[in-house]
Amino acid sequence: MFSINKSLFFLKNLFFRKKSLEQYNKLLNESKLGEIDRQKLILSRVKAILIHAYNFSDFYKKRFDLINFNPKQFQSLDELKLIPVTTKIELRENNLLIKNYDKNLIAKSTTGGSTGMPVSVFHDKSFKSEVFGWYILKQWGAHISDNAGFLERYNPSKGLTGLINKVIWWPTKRVHLNINILSDEHFFKFYEKCKKNNIVYLEGYVGAVYEFALFLEKYKLTLVNLKFVWTTSAPLNEKARDKMKFIFGCPIYDQYGSCEINWLAFECERCSGLHFFDLYRYLEIDEVGNILITDLTNYQFPLIRYKIGDKVSLNNSVCSCGITFPLINKVKGRESDLIRFMDGSSVPGEFLTTIFDDYPEAVIQFQFIQKKDFSLILKFVPTSDKSKIVVNEVINILKKMWLEKNIIIDLEEVQNIPHDYGKIRFIISEL
Ligand SMILES: [Zn+2]
Questions:
Q1: How far is the CA of 322 from the centre of ligand 1 (A)?
Q2: Which fold has domain 338-429?
């Protein structure tokens, strides 16, 4: 269908983001490759990143030399298994940036992630990963220039970047709800903006989107133009999907990614698994189901056989939707939980994972416990004597943000945070 927004978007990208457009077209073409060609392409991309890592990263050079692994002789993807897995702890303790990295090409990203263990990584800006989003929206019958609503942590760009962003998006309307507090008052304002701008899709952290659905149900409100809802950040539970589908009156699609390696997989309209971007992220699954990923697009901060902290199994069926990216089953990772305040408002877990983003070195791990009286305990495993000072600073920021909530937050320094059936629960709510 002809759309002015769509045409303007491509025209503006021709001027401002030519490389993104080129990569998008390349992605569309590569997604149509036959099986033999795609396997050849994957092999050549894995080999290229291995050689690059060996030549330019001290970490991987040492690692490969130790096992006499010569990436130039790499011939089969099975040989990857010879290389030890890269863990989150190694990521914290080693510098994985290549020796001659280009400071203009790196973008830092930090997260508490699925285990509450803060890590920092650098993305390679020369690969325009936003094109995955364009591709996914196309599969869902929408376009990136469609009006949309977002329920996530919002950091509007300032200065020239902010201005360029506005120019690029105009006349597309993108409305945001900052999720640091979810309350009826905030939801009402967001709902009004969504309605006024006829938003076509909603995107957000699954916990926040779910709360928004409950809000719509409570006040009997609807968003008539909504085509679908896109959930991220934590696996979508089937019960929650059914409920949201009923309230929003449209399909709910799950998309999987992580802070360390974003854009990994997405559901198609069949919702019978997630299509994995295997041409750009090489996936292995170890004997107990752990996801290991080799990022084939990050040449500044190579991640090879990185253990992301989630589990999955392969789905060998061929999807009838026509998308050629292979299927994986639902990812088993952190369940999304909430912190609730006495006045009925809440904060989704996805926001709380980010509280140490500015101080990733401060703690090894952290966990929130919410007691029956609404008070919070922040447990943390310190990295040094100074950890407590930084944790106190973070607590002060939270208390300021939640000033009217009168919330009590106690600190508890611990030596470790116990696993719960092999998984660390990032928030434990006793409410
Ligand atoms: Zn499909």
A1: 6
A2: GMP Synthetase; Chain A, domain 3 (3.30.300)
